[in-house]
Amino acid sequence: MAYDIDMIKKVYAQMAERVEKAREVVGKPLTLSEKILYSHLWDVEAEKAYERGADYVNFSPDRIACQDATAQMALLQFMQAGKPKVEVPTTVHCDHLIQAKQGAAKDLKRANETSNEVFDFLGSVSNKYGIGFWKPGAGIIHQVVLENYAFPGGMMIGTDSHTVNAGGLGMVAVGVGGADAVDVMAGMPWELKFPKLIGVKLTGKLNGWTAAKDVILKVAGILTVKGGTGAIIEYFGEGARSMSCTGKGTICNMGAEVGATTSTFGYDDSMERFLRATDRNDVADAANEVREHLTGDDEVYANPEQYFDEVIEINLSELRPHLNGPFTPDLATPISEMQEKAKENDWPIKVDWGLIGSCTNSSYEDLTRAASIAQQALDKKLKPKSDFGINPGSEQIRFTAERDGLLQIFEDLDATVFTNACGPCIGQWDRSDRKDEEKNTIVHSFNRNFSKRADGNPNTHAFVGSPEMVAAIAISGRLDFDPTRDKLMNEDGEEVMLDEPQGIELPTNGFEVEDAGYVAPMEDGSSVEVKVAEDSERLELLTPFEPWDGENLLGAKLLIKAHGKCTTDHISMAGPWLRYRGHLDNISNNCLIGAVNAFNMKTNFVKSQLTGEYGGVPDTQREYKEKGIPTVVVGDHNYGEGSSREHAAMEPRHLGVKVVIVKSFARIHETNLKKQGMLGLTFANESDYDLIQEDDTFNFIDLEDFAEGKQLTVEVVHADGTKDVIKTNHTYNSNQIEWYKEGSALNLIKKLNA
User: What is the pTM assigned to this prediction?
Assistant: First the structure.
């Protein structure tokens, strides 16, 4: 039986009426995305047709999911909200703080020893406030959610950008910052700009070496890392219906890499099969009763150009395997072209590691397809030329895969089976063949491959592919290996070829698990005491940010002008810094240390206008803070691309940065800045970015008139006394301006609750 089945049935009971009302006000047939959005309005029934990409709308999500790294700050904030219990079903999943090193058992034991303080904190807060708690080792948040909580037609938010994975089960599931989650936990609406809609029509059927992963690798190449910003990607067509539910999840998961708000598929037979296989017959039965409302209207899919803002068509029968990378997930290369492209770009051909898993590709089907390639290596006497690492998606998958002999196949190839956790995908990897800064290549089935992400080495060239392609390339040891045409020499000196992968959608004998790792909260947690030691390095109770004084901001100094790609990994690195995710002051020591200074092309090396000397970004900023001098960060396009981590907004806020001015923002990061009381602006004229000089001072001369839809004027004073006056845009609405005035959205919540 499903968790929260009564809530799910309630959603379905009101769906028909709400969809019909929405169809009436919109005046035309509806996409699936619109049905879910309009049926989850905070004001219950649709009163108007919202303008896509323009209108801010309040929604009422059905549930919330948090991973341990972001849950710390989210729950520290919720503790200040003055609520005895969360208002919406919420879960916490411990998957980020487990480092991959020696193998599952040893790594999990070490994590429980080194991070026990954090796990105890999360467990006690969950128990106190009515939150479901998934222990370390239970699995990767998004796979656990897909197996236990996701349901067709639902709306979910989560404090991880890959919350979108649940779109594989027909949800509108959106990654948010912790402050957004706190709003909903506290019983308040969740605000989102009504998304634009991108339709992807899938025809044909996957075959041979091509996998669901190749669909999103292809889409990433088409849309680029910012082409989906502000939009929901909705997949449809015969090709969509032909894929497995977990395959759909893979595609939706990596939609975060094109900046999409989320991605989704209509309810179909594969989703019903998955629900029943994961012991949720009650959800499948309830969904079947409202099946017509859990997919787009027929007229929409018959004439998609009339209903979507953009339409992409992909013939799955013609799609070929891809590898994307290095250093960005949208650099798409068909494997058949890799030999020429690698040579042209001087990418290292030798592959040192093949890594399979992550929230993107760790399902039972993924493991079976990769295992079918691994078994061939054993049968055909092929010794892998690369190291192998495996991260199962959940304890249920791990237990079932071990029962069915899948893990033994990998172990027979000397693969290391890591814990059911994120591991190398988020930089939680103590690489056994550490390369320092040596140029090298790895291939993995993860979603992101930014510089330094997996192992901290800026010269590790990471390429993203399907699990089966990763397995084949790791066996060959070559980046340019094309299993559809290339032969390999086995231990007997014979040339052999790998056969096409074979996968099993769902385990023939069903899923099985002894201890899934779930801990239910007490019915009444009021007596539970949450302890945070005053001298803790890992956890720190929050001090509210100061409200705006209502005056113009004058005399602000430039902290850093970031050059090129500046993701949340550059602003607040993961890896070893994950240990400080619950301690704002300590983790602020990584603030912007990965951003490239446009004036010297170095990282963590900026000029202090107080001393004229160069130093680290956090140290320099702390000096400004001590002197009470406000500062400004300037950035390029898609600033804050990547994960949902609100630390990338909270750290500069904590250290005294007042304003971020960029060419364009990634959606989640812009919202996070607003929530934390920061001023996030964009250049009205992008070329004004080039006017900013190293010793500049900024005067925001009409901030006193801060209003919705009104540009802000910035006087940029250069060291020689000359000035440039530039215009900046913003997307703050009246409610968000109140966040700014109060110092943060949380301050406003506390004020309202008081």
Answer: 0.90
Per-residue pLDDT tens digits for 265-314: 999 999 999 999 999 999 999 999 999 999 999 999 999 999 999 999 99
Q: 180 catalytic, yes or no?
A: no
Of the candidates 108, 731, 700, the residue with the CA atom closest to the CA atom of residue 421: 108
Residue 160 catalytic? yes
Residue of 4, 68, 95, 183 marked active site: 95
Distance CA 683, CA 689 (A): 7
The catalytic position among 115, 643, 644, 744 is: 643
Query: CA triplet 221, 225, 229: central angle to 5 degrees?
Result: 120
CA 326/CA 338 separation, integer angstroms: 12
Residue among 293, 448, 478, 730 flagged as catalytic: 448
Residue 754 has pLDDT above 80, yes or no: no
Tell me the per-residue pLDDT of 317-363, one tens digit each, with 9 for 90 and over. Answer: 999 999 999 999 999 999 999 999 999 999 999 999 999 999 999 99
**Catalytic entry in 40, 93, 96, 647:** 96
User: With contact defined as beta carbons under 8 Å apart, do 358 and 253 qualify?
Assistant: no
Does residue 95 carry a catalytic annotation?
A: yes
In the residue annotation, 645 being an active-site residue is answered as: yes
| Cβ-proximal residues to 13 (8 Å cutoff; 6+ apart), any chain | none
3-state secondary structure of 731: coil
Q: Is 96 a catalytic residue?
A: yes
E-strand ranges in 563-707 read 606-607, 614-615, 631-635, 657-662, 679-683, 697-700
DSSP conformational letter for 442: E
| DSSP structural state of residue 292 | G
Tell me the pLDDT tens digit for each residue of 355-384: 999 999 999 999 999 999 999 999 999 999
The Cα 530–Cα 584 span in angstroms is 18
